[in-house]
Amino acid sequence: MEIIETDIAIVGAGGAGLRAAIEVAEADPNVKVLLISKVYPMRSHTCAAEGGAAGVVKDNDTLEYHFNDTVGGGDWLTDQDAVEYFVNEIPKELTRMEHWGCPWSREDSGKVAVRPFGGMKIMRTWFAADKTGFHMLHTLFQTSLKYPTIERLDEYYVTDLMVEDGRVHGVVVMEIRTGKMTLVRAKAVIICSGGAGKIFPFTTNGAIKTGDGMAMAYRAGVPLKDMEFVQYHPTGLPATGILLTEGCRGEGGILVNKDGYRFLQDYGLGPPDPWPRLKAMELGPRDRLSQAFWHEQKKGRTIPSPWGDVMHLDMRHLGEKKINERLPLIRELSRLYAGADPVHELVPVRPVVHYMMGGIHTNIDGATPLAGLYAAGECACVSINGANRLGSNSLGELLVFGARAARNAVDYVKSTEYLNKVKTIQAQAEDAQSRVKALFQSQGTESVPGLRKELNATMEEGCGIYRTEAEIKATCDKVTEIRARYKDVKLEDTSTVFNTDLLQTLELGCMIEVAQTVAVSAFERKESRGAHQRLDYEKRDDVNYLKHSMAHFDPDGDPRIDYLDVVITKSQPAERIYGAGAEGQVV
Amino acid sequence: MARSAKAVPWFLFAAGGTVLSFILPVMIFTTGIAPALGLFTDALSYDTMSAFVGNWLVKLVLFGILTLACWHAAHRLRVCAHDFGIRADTAVAVILYGLATVGTATAALALVSI
Amino acid sequence: METRDVTIEVLRYRPEQDSEPFFQSYTVPCEEHWVVLDALNYIKDELDRTLSYRWSCHMFVCGSCGMVINGEPMLSCKKFVRDFGDKIRVEPLSNFPIERDLVIVQDDFMEKLSSVKPYLIPKEERSIESGEYLQTPAQLKTYKQYTMCINCLCCYAACPQYGLDDKFIGPAALALAHRYNADSRDVGRSAREDVVASHEGIWECSFVGACSLVCPKDVEPAGAIQQTKFTSAIDYITGMVSGGGKK
Amino acid sequence: MNRKPYRRELSKTSWFMTHQRYKSYMLHEISSLFVAIYAFILIIGLFRLGEGPEAWEGWLGFVASPIGVILHVLIFVFSIIHTMAWFKAVPQAMRIQRGEEIVPGKLIVGAHYGVLAAVSLFVLILAGVA
Ligand SMILES: Cc1cc2nc3c(=O)[nH]c(=O)nc-3n(C[C@H](O)[C@H](O)[C@H](O)COP(=O)(O)OP(=O)(O)OC[C@H]3O[C@@H](n4cnc5c(N)ncnc54)[C@H](O)[C@@H]3O)c2cc1C
Ligand code: SF4
Ligand code: F3S
Ligand code: FES
Questions:
Q1: pLDDT band at residue D1 using 50, 70 and 90 as cut-offs
Q2: pLDDT band at C246, cuts 50/70/90?
Q3: Quick one: C119 and C93 in the same domain?
Q4: Transmembrane region positions (chain B) (predicted)?
Q5: Which chains touch A (3+ CB pairs under 8 A)?
């Protein structure tokens, strides 16, 4: 097998991967960096982010406020040292993005503008109209072209991590257009492969978000942390799951039920007026809003639609000018996909799977327990999001921790040699290759779309907004079954050129592993916290569960779950208060 | 790669395109179609015309229009040749810009002769 | 859900088997709200696992799913099946080599994109502590339209000059150069000029205008190129007058 | 190598027949030929004017002859094609920004037609009055 050598291999060229690559190039031009992605960098799903990125810049704001919002928003399952570092760094990172050309929306004075976002005490979300992630991704990608030391493998699929002697020493990649597999020897690997929303049927996530990197690290023995926390975004378009950003509500949009009633006031988020008020009503956190919808639905006060019940997002009072200027994409999406023009009509929306709070366990340095392996972005869990991510914190996260992981990886590779066991390395890579080759030979009977649909369905059943023991159990069993059946999967396309059947098959394998950690972690967490709500354990239980769950891989059995303490520095767990009560609240 | 000298003929082409789009239709009507319709016979009579064109300002304007017309046409025909699959761009350019130069010169000559 | 049977004719090309592309028809029961991409996904999942095409976001922002649909380059995730009759013809983007089925080879574009130096070249480096560059909403507006490009390549598929000679830098890359040139924070115009104002750059564009017509993001590359031509021509001529046309 | 990218060539000589908008584009391109012919005829006319009344009358006669008429009608039609296509493209080539507003293309095009009317009227009056 052919071998490529580099110092740092980065898996994934989304926001996190690009930021990491630039950081490596800036930190030391002598360190070789290879940016590997299964799609061209600008196709990465960071491009879909609409609303914005939070960072303290305005005079009325403080780092402490951002810290408190984030820790409380995450229902105290955050590591507070990481959050503190994050809120400190993010304004600098966003400013750096500005220096690189990101077209942030502006105030008349020429300074960057900010908008309110859910669960934030102060307006602090930087935005570029309603295409923030898109502009950030393209700015990062285009800026990366400035650095000759950044080499790329575009449209290369990473199949495996190479691990030996307790350290990572490379990855195996497959060139998608030839099917050719190559060993990339690296002293360090940074996984920036994004989320895994595709394990659910109804999601804002793109086709590529199949949790590959999470599965890769997990199989290599790195635990996946807090996987039971799956964020439902309250406002997705029915049928497609396309997101209508929280910015809609940030700009003043409201949510109503079938009677035109702003039902959020019934769920501890009121009073409705005066509006808009930060951290209240529609500007509450996502978990609360999605849960409120669920209750409304149970009470029969939602609106039926062919794609499940919906509520209405009302933006009519914002006026055409504001909508065109601040939410042009939202208008286009609503008109096209829902046939509703927000300037004149109510837009039907419902909660949709959006974001994985959990991911590859890393410490504050972005380092995993496996030497030489780092992770950043949505695939990682550095624990700033806890049990519920606040909207607009994740675009910041991928900058801050993409850069930090990169700096640490640079330090690491400078004091590390290539692993020198040529035979073992070769054998490992050949192994990875034969696993893929075996798929071509397989005489199996299971179909990839079939298994995927079953997986999606059971995840929605058991790991939705509200969960119960019996349902989660059923899902756990079902996923175990699917995992077994996957061994019998049949590849129908045997071409080696751009074989998307093969890609989907490999991705499904990853999705199943990740899904299993979600289900089993959810089963084990017998409390309600943030996005993990159990009808059979309605209370938060700090005595037993103020801990990160860690899912460990078992090649033959279910994942093993153990727990890790949460890092608490200055904010003791308290009740999360939104609505009127949030006004004078310290935390 | 080097900056292309196409900038110069393009500029004339663009300036020409703009000026001609305003003036050409009415000019063509006046000098080309009116005679057949028997219109403007006075204005087009030898006396009026020679007096009119005799004015140096009119000469200058006519010279400008004719030059721009030549260069506009030459540059666009160069592109056109390319579009029709004639790929000997340099040769085409030499011929067409040569013709445009000749056109410019004869226009000047003709105007001076009045 | 009610469905309507639509015949989707897809241009297939399997390099290991076929010497040239051919059309293959599928009958797809399409739902009312489907875009063409949904129909392709149906084919992939239910009818033929061997069909290859690119897609990801399904919300016209990743730029993966450009295809020629009934003769026009467009995003298959933005075009609704309901807007067509009972037959839809889907082909890969024209003017690019076909890798396989609807997948085209886009290496050429990636090179062109980086050749125009598509990044901010400021007058002087600014420290993070000194905060952001000031830029008024009006200054932002000047270049904003040209930042909207998702690199979907529909414009290249529509531009005959690119089809006739693929040395042409092409609409999207040139529009991107213009985006940075027009940014009040940038002074890199002359650094980009060697590529942008070369024969293969703006001067290869004959203003066919098709690029702007097909662009799903209203980037208006044709306009960007014409504006660039104008400033470049002025530059060139003043350079000629003052410095004997150095370059 | 298992890859075998398939290249589809555009016909260098007939590509423009593949789409209506390419045909329109070519029509506009061709208009330049008629501009050239018109310039040529006019330059001859000026020479004739310099040569005296007879020569001038002869030129006018040519213009009014069947061939002259056909030629000029063609030239006229193409000049209209040119003008319309040119105006249509103006907002693309010339973006006018007032503060945060981009002046709408329709307005710019409209203004151009206004100027066209004024110029034409001016020339016609000049010709009619003189
Ligand atoms: C619709 C939507 C709107 C959002 N809006 C906001 C918002 O307003 N504010 C906010 O803060 N956050 C928002 N988010 C969340 C945020 O955008 C994402 O969490 C973030 O962009 C993830 O970035 P990333 O770099 O980690 O991953 P991605 O951008 O998803 O990139 C993943 C990369 O990994 C590569 N990859 C994956 N697997 C492999 C493999 N096996 N081999 C090779 N390469 C691989 C992919 O090709 C890709 O390049 C939004 C998310 C969505 C879906
Ligand atoms: S300019 Fe428009 S058509 Fe061309 S690549 Fe960009 S978005 Fe696509
Ligand atoms: S279609 Fe091509 S020729 Fe120019 S105006 Fe657009 S790039
Ligand atoms: S799938 Fe992303 S643009 Fe169509």
A1: low
A2: very low
A3: no
A4: 7-29, 49-71, 91-112
A5: C, D
What was the pLDDT predicted at A275?
A: 86
The nearest alpha carbon in chain C to B80 belongs to C206
Ligand 4, CB cutoff 6 Å, lining residues: C 55-58, 60-65, 75, 77
Of the candidates B91, B97, B90, B95, the one whose C-alpha atom is nearest the C-alpha of residue B74 is: B97
C223 and D3 in contact by Cβ < 8 A? Answer: no
- Residue ending a domain, choose from C44, C73, C104: C104
In chain A (587 residues long), the average pLDDT of successive 10-residue segments reads 96 98 97 98 97 96 97 97 98 98 97 94 95 98 97 98 96 98 97 98 97 98 98 95 94 96 95 89 94 96 95 97 94 95 97 97 98 98 97 97 98 94 92 96 94 98 96 98 97 97 98 98 98 96 98 96 97 92 58
Domain presence at residue C247: no
Residue of the CA atom closest to atom 7 of ligand 3: C171
Structure tokens belonging to residue C241:
């007058």
Compute the distance between CA of residue C136 and CA of residue C90 in angstroms, rounded to an integer.
44
* Burial of residue A586 (number of CB atoms within 10 Å: 0-12, 13-18, 19+): exposed
Given CB atoms, is C138 within the 8 Å cutoff of chain D? yes
CA–CA separation, A312 and A315 (whole Å): 10
CATH topology for A430-560? Methane Monooxygenase Hydroxylase; Chain G, domain 1 (1.20.58)
Cβ neighbours around C18 below 10 Å, total: 13
**Ligand 3 residue neighbourhood (C-beta within 6 Å):** C 158-159, 161, 171, 205-211, 221-222, 225
Active site residue A286: no
Identify whether A467 is a catalytic site residue: no
Cis previous bond, A274, omega within 30: yes
Which of D1, D2, D3, D4 is the best substitution to test chain C (most C C-beta atoms within 10 A)?
A: D4
- CATH number assigned to the domain with residue range A2-230+354-424, chosen from the 4 options 1.10.1040.10, 3.50.50.60, 3.40.50.150, 1.10.10.10: 3.50.50.60
- Cα separation, D48 vs D53, in Å, equals 8
Total length of chain B: 114
By the CB < 8 Å criterion, does A37 face chain C?
Answer: no
**CB-based contact, B8 to chain C, within 8 Å:** yes
- Tell me the ipTM for this assembly: 0.96
C243 confidence band (pLDDT: 50, 70, 90): low
Interface of B with D in 64-83 (CB under 8 A): 66, 69-70, 72-74, 76-77, 79-80, 83
Which of the 8 DSSP states describes residue D7? P
Q: How confident is the model at residue D130 (pLDDT cuts 50, 70, 90)?
A: low
**Residue C72, min C-alpha distance to chain A (Å):** 19
The token pair at B73 is 């046409």
H/E element holding A344? none
**Active site residue: A152, A169, A233, A361, which one?**
A233
